[in-house]
Amino acid sequence: MSYSNYHPVYLALSGRLIVIVGGGSVAVEKLESLLPTGASISVVAPEVCDKILHWYADGQIAWHKRPFQDSDIDGAFMVIAGTDDADLNARIYDLGDAAGKLTNSVDDPDHCNFIMAAIARSGPMQVAVSSAGCSPALAQRVRNRIQSEILTDDLGNLAEYLGDRRAAVKAALPTYRARKTFWEKAIDSDLPKILATEGTAFADVYFEGLLRRSVIQWSEPASVESSKVYLIGAGPGDPGLLTLRAVEVLKQADVVVYDRLVNPIVLGYARPDAICLYAGKERGTPGQPRQDAIQAQLIRYALQGKTVVRLKGGDPFVFGRGGEEMLALAEAGVPFEVVPGISSSVAAPAAAHIPVTHRGVSTAFAVFAGHEADDRPGDRIPWQAAAAIPTAVFLMGVERLPLIVSRLIAEGRSADTPVAIVSNATMSNQAVVTGTLETIVEIAKGVEPPAVIVVGEVVRVREQLVPLLKQSGALETVAA
Ligand SMILES: C[S@@+](CC[C@H](N)C(=O)[O-])C[C@H]1O[C@@H](n2cnc3c(N)ncnc32)[C@H](O)[C@@H]1O
Asked: Is there a catalytic annotation at residue 51?
């Protein structure tokens, strides 16, 4: 038989019948190796040595106290012939092999359809060593080295630890490839060292972190398509307030068309070879022709098969003309996706510690475009509603502040109503000024856009906060 004819396997022997013929030291050696498997072992021999007698008396094995009979192998899963009679051993092998049973005639490779390996163990770890029957003594020697130098107690504990967590990893990472990569990473990580030196509780914290990262890494990436336009809200300014979806799409875009209030740092998420086009409508430039040109540009790039991002400050549909762009794309038959953003209308008050609604103070808020607040015919601000709503938020209103104030007072809003103006919200140069409808115009002199004006009693929440934070020494959080 050639060496490569042997292939190691680990047999599940629990409850299976193993027949061992012979009662001497050879049988003892096999019994010592097989008893821990939970197999049901039957010894056939007229006489047995003391050790076997002890196992028999202890109920660990059955013993048929007589010479071998052919019918002894009936029902056996494995047969081991270990008598001193080579002819009998060979005959038992012929019988067992013909009956399709795993049969081993000890120390006689020609009469074996399997051989037993020398085993090194530590907990659930087992290394089986074989010399393909050439030299069991050499295999034993190799086994001993593996046992003393490699299969340390730590390794056994690690195997047990990992085994206990297999089901959890299978549930968290559904694909075979993801699990294989995870286990390789875990074994090569600091986990074995932490388990050995710090114990299970510390190892668990580390293990769970590794698993969480793998789950994120292997979670299905949401698709980003070519020939499509993504209308994305970039939030109020702080790049940390971009959505995960916005970053995901930006990373894959071929073209990014961005507005004036988009923080340039955000563009850093785009590929180095992406085309980034500024589409800011500077004040004073004619609006509609520029808007038409932007829409035509989006459509052109999408029809060229490119992944196009239209990046707008805040949310694309809060005074962002996102609605018009969406309609233009639909009309041109260009697929699109809207990725909402955090609007400055809520982010600026929040960043200044002003809740736009507050129990007992404000049950509603509305957002107005302050630059519509001139007295030309077709004035679009519903002033009565603006004066009546508990919290009125004005975007693009700094330059028209005097007009906004006078119209609100004219519609019956008390001159004592608190007002806050938050400029460059969420950015490092964020600034907040507060006053009342009566005083704010004077106070806000010098405030530059972009800024959000908040009118309503909710502004007092920020004022309540200041003394509280002074007490706790955390005042700098509302200093701006
Ligand atoms: C054309 S509107 C766009 C609003 C945007 N779509 C949104 O949802 O925030 C521009 C106005 O938003 C407000 N704004 C935008 N970013 C701001 C920021 N970081 N701080 C204060 N106001 C901001 C200002 O009122 C600015 O004039």
From this structure: no
Give the total number of structural domains in the chain: 4
User: Helix H segments across 389-458?
Assistant: 401-410, 440-443
Establish whether residue 235 lines the binding site of ligand 1, counting it when its CB lies within 6 angstroms of any ligand atom. no
Q: Are 356 and 459 within one domain?
A: yes
The Å distance, Cα 255 to ligand 1 centre, comes to 23
Q: Retrieve residue 338's tokens.
A: 């809207």
Cα(454) to ligand 1 centroid in Å equals 13
For the Cβ of 319 lying below 6 angstroms from any atom of ligand 1, the answer is yes
Q: Is cis: bond before 450, omega within 30 of 0?
A: yes
Question: What is the atom index within ligand 1 of the atom nearest the CA of 425?
Answer: 20
Give, for all 480 residues of the chain, the pLDDT tens digit. 567 788 889 999 999 999 999 999 999 999 999 999 999 999 999 999 999 999 999 999 999 999 999 999 999 999 999 999 999 999 999 999 999 999 999 988 899 999 888 889 888 898 999 888 788 889 989 999 999 988 888 899 999 999 999 999 999 998 888 899 999 999 999 999 999 999 999 999 999 999 988 888 777 666 788 899 999 999 999 999 999 999 999 999 999 999 999 998 999 999 889 999 999 766 666 667 788 999 999 999 999 999 999 999 999 999 999 999 999 999 999 999 999 999 999 999 999 999 999 999 999 999 999 887 455 555 578 999 999 999 999 999 999 999 999 999 999 999 999 999 999 999 999 999 999 999 999 999 999 999 999 999 999 999 898 788 877 766 555 545
Task: Please work out whether the CB of residue 263 comes within 6 Å of at least one atom of ligand 1.
Answer: no
169 Cα: distance to centroid of ligand 1 (angstroms) = 45
For residue 174, give its domain range: 153-218
CA of 33 to the centre of ligand 1 (A): 77
Q: Give all strands of the β-sheet with 228-233 in edge-to-edge order.
A: 275-278, 255-258, 307-312, 228-233, 336-339
Q: Which residue puts its alpha carbon closest to atom 16 of ligand 1?
A: 236
At residue 38, the 3 state secondary structure works out as: coil
Active-site choice (254, 259, 306, 315) = 259
Cβ of residue 96 lying under 6 Å from some atom of ligand 1: no
Residue 161 is part of a domain; what is its CATH number?
A: 1.10.8
Q: Quick check: is 259 catalytic?
A: yes
DSSP for 83-133, written as a single string: SS-HHHHHHHHHHHHHTT-EEEETT-GGGBSS-PPEEEEETTEEEEE--TT
Residues 82, 195 within the same domain: no
Per the document, the length of the chain is: 480
CA-proximal residue: ligand 1, atom 10 (nearest): 396
